[in-house]
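User: structure tokens for this one?
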Amino acid sequence: MKAMILAAGRGERMRPLTDRTPKPLLQAGGKALIEHQIYRLRAAGVRELVINHAHLGAQIEQRLGDGRDHGVHIRYSAEGQGQGQALETGGGIFRALPLLGPEPFLVINGDIWCDVDYGRLRHRSGDLASLVLVDNPPHHPQGDFTLDARGRVSAGKGPRLTFSGVGIYHPDLFAGCSDGPFRLAPLLTAAMARDRVGGMHHRGHWLDVGTPERLQALRQMLDRGQD
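Assistant:
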């Protein structure tokens, strides 16, 4: 399975740290955030990676190159630097589809840290998406989606979990889309309404590294050896 790491965000909540450094290259535990993801993917046997970028994207390519120093092969999907260029999650994945191929692929937000075993993720035939959900963090107590006992994900009523930013998607999820900015969430909720989204509840470590405070919390956790 191929994997895509989303690395095109501007990182507004991380400013001024992201004024000169793209958020995926911020350091924690002696590695850039995106390098933690690359090493976990490699450990799971995933070698073919696609990384999208926009803000200061040249730094990401300079740091990671073609991936050989990290034991993987990386291709890039550039989205441009200017205002109005950001494609959002859905548009970014859609533009990278030619690099990802016709089979289901794994997508990971480049600004999270987690100990999910990517090698254990499964995608059911016929599903358009398989999502990793986590307990609701303090900054997002309302959650996103429900997960039933059958492992089906919905946007309906009931106790909610938070979408981790880790998912497996079938290219058909993007059928009918066109190049340009659009969000991923409406595609997912439409697929959920057709019972074509599965999921799992990850109960291990997960952190959305979206603010300087949460980056510091991650650094402290990794300094204690919790990797």
